[in-house]
Every structure is written in structure tokens, then in C-alpha cells.
Amino acid sequence: MKSTDIMIPSGYLPIAVFLALLLAACTTTSTGTRFYQLAPLPLSPGPDAPDAKVLAFGPLTFPDYLKRPQLVRRASDTTLTIDEFNRWVEALDQSAPRVIARNVDGLMSNLIVIPFRNRAVEAGYRLFGSVSEFEADASGRTVLVVQWGITHTAGGLTIPPRTDRYEAQATPADDPTAVVDAMSDLLGQFSREIVTLIRATILQAEQ
């Protein structure tokens, strides 16, 4: 078979080289991106008690700087880095509240946790909150700062608003998987604190 050479006019050669480089850059970006998801506590919850209380979870708000698909790292008090190649598989302000709610529900057989938007089930209590920090710094120190409280749906505060801070260490510090694991650990710490206070207030008061 006779081969045919394709000649590119000299005037179009720079354009052809540019398009080839652009294609290579796009290919590298798409294949180099990794996606991550927060993990709940490794629990094997049993059936809920017949007289279990119902807690509506949310809203739990997040600052705008965390409402992005990329992982965010803190470089200094005033500087953040955005990791374009390591991203969340879903929005952080959606996945984190769901993981916490699942943790709390799994840790307590006498409490059923539902999303606060669920109108099909009447909840006696509602947890509300606002996250102000939830990221790792360059050393791997990972921080969660959250203000939260619980109200009785009939009116009044059951757990007055409080601010809690949790820390975990990502090792190695530059490993995104280790950072996500540390962030999941922080949600676990927060979940256990919620459970401790619910047992000391809501459940204790109704015994």
C-alpha cells in the first residue's frame, strides 16, 4: 500500500503545535484528578428502640470558601491553597452533615436522626449549627470548628449554642488521602460529643 504524506502549510504549523500541546495538557489534567469522600464511623447499628426520640439534623452551614469541589488547605492565617487535582466527589456541605447524622444515629439505639427537611416524620428535637473551619494546614494539622445547639421543636433550647474545636493529624501531611481520613476522624469526634451531651440532657431529663 502506498503511504500518503500529509503536508501542513508552514503558516499553520504553529497552530498545529499549539493544538497538540493543548490536547496533551487536557489529557494530563483529566487523568490526574482524584476524587474523595468523607467516611462515617465503622459502626454496625442494630434496630432502634420502640420509644426512640427523633432528632432532625440541620441545617449545618459551611463558609463559602469550603463550598467548592477542590480540597482546601490552609497555608497561613490569611492564605489558602486550592488543590485542583484532588476533589470532593460531592459537595462538602452536603456530605459532612450526612456523615455526622449517620454517626449519631448509629451510636444511639434510642435516637433516630432524620434530615431537617424531612416533613414526613415529626421530630421532637432539631440540631442546628455552623462550621467556621474545616481544613488541614501544611503540617497536616486538621481542624474542625463548629458552633451548634439543639432546640426542642415545641420551643426552647435543650442544648444552648456552644462552640467546639477538634483536631486530628494527617500523616503524611502532604497525602490527600490522609487529610480526608483526618477530616473524617474530626466528624467522628464531633458526633461522639453530640451523643454525650444528648445522653446528659435530653435522655436524662426524660427518664
Description of the molecule:
- This protein has helices at 13-32, 92-107, 176-205, and strands at 34-36, 53-61, 70-74, 80-88, 111-115, 125-137, 141-152, 157-169.
- With 207 residues, the chain is α/β, with parallel strands linked by helices.
- It has a single domain, classed as Rossmann fold, CATH 3.40.50.
- Strands 1, 2, 3, 4, 5, 6, 7 and 8 form an eight-stranded mixed beta sheet that branches.
- β7 (141-152) and β8 (157-169) form a beta hairpin.
- The longest helix is centred in the C-terminal third of the chain and has 30 residues, at 176-205.
- The radius of gyration is 24 Å and the shape is elongated.
Which features does this protein show?
207 residues; alpha/beta; Rossmann fold; eight-stranded mixed beta sheet; 3 helices; 8 strands; 32% helix; 33% strand
Topology (elements, then pairings):
Elements: H1 13-32, E1 34-36, E2 53-61, E3 70-74, E4 80-88, H2 92-107, E5 111-115, E6 125-137, E7 141-152, E8 157-169, H3 176-205
Parallel strand pairs: 1-4, 2-5, 2-6, 3-6
Antiparallel strand pairs: 3-4, 6-7, 7-8
Gist of the model:
The chain has 207 residues and is of the alpha/beta class.
Name the helicity range.
Answer: 25-40%
CATH topology type: Rossmann fold
Shape: elongated
First-residue to last-residue Cα separation: 90 Å
How many whole angstroms does the radius of gyration measure?
24 Å
How many individual β-strands? 8
SSE string: HEEEEHEEEEH
Uncertain ranges: 22-29
Structural class: alpha/beta
Strand composition percent: 25-35%
Top-tier CATH class: Alpha Beta
Number of helices, counting only DSSP H or I runs of 4 residues or more = 3
